[in-house]
Amino acid sequence: MPEITRDEVRHLADLARIELDDAELDHLAPQLSVILESIASIAEVAAADIPPTSHAIPLTNVFREDVVRPSLTAEQALSGAPASEQQRFSVPRILGDEQ
Predict the structure, then answer these.
(1) CB 90 within 8 A of CB 84
(2) What is the pLDDT of residue 61?
């Protein structure tokens, strides 16, 4: 696989709107080449008869069913609150009107 050049790194940086100086270009070009070589070696190992997967083993949902059950009324939930308003907890304002 051909190595990525400084000019290619500079072009990618320009596309991403990242400013890189010459020292950074010299440092990043070989690193990006190594990354590309690693990806190429993985692509060689991938067999056509093996479907792509996101996990090595199948995963199952461990969450319980969403079932409606009896719970507190609004009055019960707000009974211990220092302040409430329109069946909601009332808290001090932390932001001004400049939102």
Answers:
(1) yes
(2) 81
pTM of the shown model = 0.44
- What angle (nearest 5°) sits at the alpha carbon of residue 85, between those of residues 80 and 89? 45
The span from the CA of 8 to the CA of 15, in Å, is 11
Residues 6+ apart with CB under 8 A from 89: 78, 81, 83
* β-bridge partners, 89: 84
According to the model, what pLDDT value does residue 11 have?
95
| Separation between Cα atoms, residue 84 and residue 96, nearest integer Å | 20
Q: Please report, for residues 85, 88, 93, 94, the alpha-carbon distance to residue 97 in angstroms, rounded to integers and kept in the order given.
A: 20, 21, 10, 10
Which H helix or E strand runs over 58?
none
Q: Name the one residue in this structure whose structure tokens are 């996990």.
A: 55
